């Protein structure tokens, strides 16, 4: 998570403790959901009918500083207690170490709004699943400084990985690396032929090393360029999602994004067509909670029509995006209470996430 | 009267003359107190004491007993001079700092007296280096007046338990707060840094605790930048004794076992920091 953002969002839910991070340009979001069974004891606290479970964010560095040396932690720490004390404004992390020694850290936290990227893996046209090792071995061929990589599907069900080269780059001075993976290297392949996406490799590497270390297969859900790519890891007690924005194609202007089930969308007018943005608008105009099939873990947030123009929200949420990059920020759902399965009318709208800052 | 030791091999009368088969026995200890450039050396019949001070608040002493040396003679009752500790250490480790098994640097140290430089003869593998380090007028040293009768609280811990804690101290905190008490939390080290506060608690019945004699609950704060150098001494030591007196002065004594199994001591004395506003716990 520290590879993604500088702040760690802690959100206790009934389904477990969720740790999340987002990057400054809001083009990458990751969440780790630890089920109650992962813990020896899990008490998310009580939430009243109108209140939510308390959540907060802390500085990533401060949090990581407590778990500085993993090898020595493994040897000396028996258990770790995490307590959220809203009234004292402290997040308490207590490590019970050998020899009866107790290390107590009281971290200052900031209250924050819910951090949630909107995505739906069910709606992705393509899905790949591979052991993390296969992907790690593939990615090792690319230099550590490489920013973006393009994942594509080719003839014979082969999957390609290629470094992304900026259009403005001199062809004679750039090195292109491309490698192909056969279908049988993957555990499952269900892809739309001829599809490809370009995403940030740096942010992906972090998840990849975690997947390798935990020996979990990695699933990649992707759709058209411009739509976010979702990487997931699943375990009995852990669910990991990494959502990265993808580069949208300049040629996508004429494509009709019909897969999202909405009848018509505004035609993108400028070169930086953002299918994602259109998707957002489409969501806004859809009705209530039945706007689309809900994602298994992250239900779609349906903002009420009275919400401010998403265009405005979108631009305001992209403070740090360099102009030449065609990535746009992921849509972060307007802040709403987690919907209990039920009618949308019970949902409360909290202050909207106007400038992207919590 | 001061005893008259055997005259040095050269026959001349040196105020201080010493020989050491393994210079590391001296250099490793001196490194544990090397947080300032200059040190004051005091040689007496019992051995050599090297003192380093800072800010009139902290004093560290390294003791190398006469028995550690193969030869140690002091002409007068005591010999004292001020010297650059950085230069002294550079000379002692002139053949390198890596300790290959079986190799060691032999040292012969001679000091004629007031106004003369300190002569070092270092030999390793047949190669001899001669160093001459200028000495200065010794400055007055702090006297913390710390004696056994004035000790209020004392604990002795195995260094293993503190090493990691000291190495990982939150340096964004201005102070290190030490609480010693006959009741909980018994022995607590606290820091108050940018991220928040951190407390390290050692129970009195911990396996690490060799001795626990706390009579009164005391909480004192010390400037963390002054105490941080003591980490080096802690890393070398096997045991540490932590004592405070009624005024909150801190004494840290480290028992260090050298390569040959001989015992040496390093101690740190520190004044409590009075200029701190109430830190949150």
From TrEMBL, chain A:
Catalyzed chemical reaction(s): Exonucleolytic cleavage in the 3'- to 5'-direction to yield nucleoside 5'-phosphates
A single MF term (Gene Ontology): double-stranded DNA 3'-5' DNA exonuclease activity
Protein keywords: DNA damage, Exonuclease, Hydrolase, Nuclease, Nucleus, Phosphoprotein
GO CC aspect terms: checkpoint clamp complex
UniProt biased composition (Polar residues): 250-262
EC supergroup of this enzyme: hydrolase
Record's function text: Component of the 9-1-1 cell-cycle checkpoint response complex that plays a major role in DNA repair. The 9-1-1 complex is recruited to DNA lesion upon damage by the RAD17-replication factor C (RFC) clamp loader complex. Acts then as a sliding clamp platform on DNA for several proteins involved in long-patch base excision repair (LP-BER).
Name of the molecule in the record: Cell cycle checkpoint control protein RAD9A
Annotated source species: Melanocharis versteri (Fan-tailed berrypecker)
Record gene name: Rad9a
UniProtKB/TrEMBL annotation, chain B:
One GO BP annotation of this record: DNA damage checkpoint signaling
Broad class of the protein's primary localization: nucleus
Protein origin, superkingdom: Eukaryota
Subcellular location: Nucleus
Biological function: Component of the 9-1-1 cell-cycle checkpoint response complex that plays a major role in DNA repair. The 9-1-1 complex is recruited to DNA lesion upon damage by the RAD17-replication factor C (RFC) clamp loader complex. Acts then as a sliding clamp platform on DNA for several proteins involved in long-patch base excision repair (LP-BER).
Alphabetical UniProt keywords: DNA damage, DNA repair, Nucleus
Family recorded in the similarity comment: Belongs to the rad1 family.
Family matches, as InterPro entries: Cell_cycle_checkpoint_Rad1, DNA_clamp_sf, Rad1_Rec1_Rad17
GO cellular component: checkpoint clamp complex
Quaternary organization: Component of the toroidal 9-1-1 (RAD9-RAD1-HUS1) complex, composed of RAD9A, RAD1 and HUS1. The 9-1-1 complex associates with LIG1, POLB, FEN1, RAD17, HDAC1, RPA1 and RPA2. The 9-1-1 complex associates with the RAD17-RFC complex. RAD1 interacts with POLB, FEN1, HUS1, HUS1B, RAD9A and RAD9B. Interacts with DNAJC7. Interacts with RHNO1; interaction is direct.
Stored Pfam families: Rad1
Family annotation (PANTHER family): CELL CYCLE CHECKPOINT PROTEIN RAD1
Designated name of the protein: Cell cycle checkpoint protein RAD1
